[in-house]
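SEQUENCE-TO-STRUCTURE ENTRY
===========================
Question of interest: how does this chain fold, as expressed in backbone structure tokens?
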Amino acid sequence: STLFPYTTLFRSGALRAEPFDPDALTRLITELRDRSTRVQQNAQTAFVAHLTAMSAAERVTLANKLERGKP
């Protein structure tokens, strides 16, 4: 799952493989990192688009709420 990438790692055969293949584990971890990066990039793009669509007053209101810890 994208939200819980290390679940994929723990469920993979890479940890249980015998003989253990550190290169296979490294490839899996790299894939998980890349997937996580893509999710973060997509979220950032969506967040910026949402903020862009807001008026200046709406952005100030949101900033004030976030500053007070009230989303």
Remarks:
- The chain has a mean pLDDT of 87.
